[in-house]
Structures are given as C-alpha cells and as structure tokens.
From TrEMBL:
Protein's UniProt name: NAD(P)-dependent oxidoreductase
InterPro entries with a match to the protein in the record: 6-PGluconate_DH-like_C_sf (IPR008927), 6PGD_dom2 (IPR013328), 6PGDH_NADP-bd (IPR006115), HIBADH-related (IPR015815), NAD(P)-bd_dom_sf (IPR036291), Pgluconate_DH_NAD-bd_C (IPR015814)
All residue ranges annotated as the 6-phosphogluconate dehydrogenase NADP-binding domain in the record: 2-140
Keywords recorded for this protein, A-Z: Oxidoreductase
Length: 290
C-alpha cells in the first residue's frame, strides 16, 4: 500500500508515524500549502519526500489522505483533480460539513478516482491511525479488509459521503462548546474577582465533570488547538444551518476558540489555578485589543 498526504499537520504526522511501522505500507510523499522549513523537516525527518506541488506528491500513491485545515479542504481536493487517476482513493479526514464532503466526493469521483469520508473521533495522539474513525462512501464496504489489515479502528457508517462527518460535526457542537463554556466562564470569573465561588459552585453542581482537572484540560485544548477548532466549528455552524438549527451558536463557540488560539501560550502557567487563569485573561485581553 503506497500512501501520500495532502497537508502535513498534526493529524497527518500522527497517521504517518504509526502507519510507517505497519507491514505492507510505503509512505511516499506529502504536499503542504505551507512550504516552509518546519513542515519540510517534519516530512523529510520521517522519510517522506516533501514536494512543491500536489501532482508530484500523489503520483503513484494508492491512498491519498487529505489532512488540511477545515477552511482549505475543498481547495485541497480541487488542487488534486488534474492529477488523480482511476484506482486511487482520496481519504478526506478533514472536519467539515456534510455538504462540503458531498461536493468533494462529486469532484473526485468525476475524474475517475474514489472518495472516502473519514471522521476522526478522538485525539490522534498517541494512537495515530488506530484512533477511532467513522467511514462513509461508495467504497467503504469493499475497503474493510484493507483497513482491518492495516490496523485501523473503524466503523463503516454508510455508502453516502457526508454521513460520517455529520456525526462528528453535530457532536462537535457539544464537545468544543463545553470547552468554550468552561474557559470563558472561568476567565470571566477571574476578571470579576469571584473565581473560587464560581468554581466551587460548578464543582458542586456538576461533580461528574472532574473539577478542577477538567478546567486545566479545557484550557490546554483551546490554547493549543483553538485556531483549528475554530475552523471546525465554522463548519459545524454550516451543518446546523443545513439541518435547520441554530448554527450561530457554533459560530460563537468558534469565536471563543479562535480568541484562545491567538493567546501567546499553549497551556496554563504553572501554579494555583486562579492565578493561572488570571494570567491567561490578561493575555487574552491584550491579544483581543491589539
């Protein structure tokens, strides 16, 4: 099995790391719109060719993983159309709306290649390609044996592209929304001078959430991944609008995730939780008002 990647960020690197240790897999190359030294080093350090264009990266590959930011998923598909050939399978792992994946599927199958909607349902570290995923597409059933052989933890949802990502996009409103609610509430509490009272009240009302450890986790996720999560939530908003519900709620969650992602920190500072949150509040205000 010869594999190539379009996009070489966190998910692609995690998949590459574990797939490269799997028998019968040859990871050939990657293309990333970020043609810089950090991405090039990440690719070549793993033994991949880092190509300057999509065509050279995917030539000769059996499977092509599209793993870009949500806002660039359709661009990634369109950049490959002139180079895809029958027999190749493009696996779209991007967190985008069902409508976006249906459109991508139409474009890919229109040029003779196959398309698979893959929804990654948990953090990609430390399991890499063995992270639980959902699959949907015309070739999902016939690909079962290969996915099993390569060690994927997967469930086939159906034959229609978009049905796997629909599950993730609907679920994401809750998961990323809970993160946004947690960090925004505690930031406001620290700013208002009522941090202990608010935290104690939340812990008493919702003890199953695991306070205060879950608060630290929520801050780490939004600080480290906020920009990517914001792009995903914009797609979740489109999904909810398509379904006739309030997509604007997901857009507001995206606003929080984006603001957290722009804070110049990737985790809470060490020390007492209230002081750490207060420090992030100061950085957030400074970043927002720059």
């Amino acid at each position: 099995m010869k594999i190539a990647f379009i996009g070489f960020g966190e998910a692609a690197r995690a998949f590459s790391d574990t797939l490269s240790r799997t028998a019968d897999v040859d990871i050939l190359a990657t293309y990333d719109v970020r043609q810089d030294e950090s991405v090039a080093s990440a690719a070549t350090g793993r033994g991949l060719r880092f190509e300057p264009d999509v065509g050279r990266a995917i030539a000769g590959a059996d499977w092509i993983f599209s793993a870009v930011t949500a806002d660039r998923s359709l661009d990634a598909v369109q950049s490959a159309l002139d180079h895809l050939v029958p027999g190749q399978l493009l696996i779209d792992i991007n967190s985008v709306s069902p409508g976006r994946k249906r459109r991508s599927a139409e474009l890919v199958t229109g040029c003779g290649a196959a398309y698979l909607d893959m929804a990654v349902m948990a953090p990609v570290h430390p399991r890499g390609h063995a992270t639980p995923v959902l699959l949907a597409g015309a070739t999902a059933d016939e690909s079962r044996g290969t996915f099993e052989h390569l060690g994927f933890a997967f469930e086939v949802i159906g034959v229609d592209a978009g049905t796997a990502t629909a599950i993730k996009m609907v679920r994401s409103m809750f998961v990323k929304g809970l993160e946004a609610l947690t960090v925004e509430t505690l930031l406001a509490a620290a700013t208002a001078g009522c941090f202990d009272r608010v935290l104690d009240s939340l812990a008493a009302t919702y003890p199953g959430l695991g306070w205060p450890d879950n608060a630290r986790y929520m801050f780490e996720r939004t600080l480290h991944h906020g920009l990517r999560r914001a792009a995903e939530m914009r797609e979740s908003a489109i999904t909810y609008d398509e379904l006739g519900y309030v997509g604007a709620l997901a857009d507001r969650i995206a606003d929080v995730q984006e603001r957290m992602g722009r804070v110049p920190a990737t985790d809470l500072p060490a020390g007492p939780l209230e002081a750490a949150v207060a420090r992030i509040a100061t950085l957030r205000h400074a970043t927002t008002h720059d």
